Backbone:
C-alpha cells in the first residue's frame, strides 16, 4: 500500500510540474529601435495565454551594468497598433530588488479588464532612471483570450 501511495505521489508531482510548465513559457518580444543600457535575458507571461478579466503576470529578467536607484516604468498596451491603455509606475515598485545593480527581475502583476478585446496585443515597456535616462525599451507580444463565460441553467 505504501508503494502505491509513493507512486501516486510521484505521478501527482510530475503532473503538477507539467501544468506549471504549460502555464509559463517564454514570451515573444523584441527591443524597440535604438541602443539600450540594460539587457533583457528572458520575458515570461503567466498564464501563457491570458484571459480578459483575470490576472496576468509579466516577469522580465535582465542585466544592468550600473547602480539604478529608481525611476519610472512606462507601460503601453496596443491593439492592432492602437494604444488602448497607458500606465506609469514607479520602477522600484516593479523590481524585485531596488536599487538594482547587475541582474534584475521586473515582476508586474495586474488584472486585465473584463472587457479586454480578445486577440493579439502588444505591451510596450520603457524603463527610465531617476534622471529620466532611458534604460531599456521592449515590445512584448500578448495573445489575450476572451472572458470566461459562466453558463447557468435556469429551471423554468
Residues:
Amino acid at each position: 500500500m505504501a508503494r502505491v501511495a509513493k507512486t501516486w505521489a510521484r505521478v501527482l508531482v510530475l503532473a503538477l510540474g507539467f501544468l506549471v510548465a504549460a502555464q509559463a513559457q517564454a514570451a515573444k518580444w523584441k527591443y524597440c529601435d535604438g541602443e539600450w543600457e540594460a539587457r533583457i535575458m528572458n520575458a515570461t507571461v503567466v498564464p501563457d495565454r491570458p484571459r480578459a478579466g483575470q490576472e496576468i503576470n509579466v516577469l522580465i529578467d535582465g542585466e544592468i551594468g550600473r547602480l539604478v536607484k529608481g525611476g519610472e516604468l512606462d507601460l503601453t498596451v496596443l491593439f492592432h497598433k492602437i494604444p488602448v491603455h497607458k500606465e506609469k509606475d514607479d520602477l522600484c515598485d516593479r523590481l524585485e530588488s531596488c536599487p538594482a545593480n547587475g541582474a534584475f527581475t521586473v515582476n508586474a502583476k495586474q488584472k486585465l479588464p473584463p472587457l479586454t478585446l480578445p486577440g493579439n496585443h502588444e505591451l510596450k515597456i520603457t524603463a527610465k532612471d531617476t534622471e529620466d535616462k532611458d534604460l531599456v525599451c521592449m515590445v512584448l507580444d500578448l495573445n489575450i483570450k476572451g472572458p470566461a463565460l459562466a453558463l447557468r441553467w435556469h429551471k423554468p
Summary: Residues 2-23 form the longest helix (22 residues). The CA atoms of residues 95 and 106 lie 5 Å apart. DSSP finds two helices and nine strands in the chain. Confidence is low (pLDDT under 50) at residues 4-23.
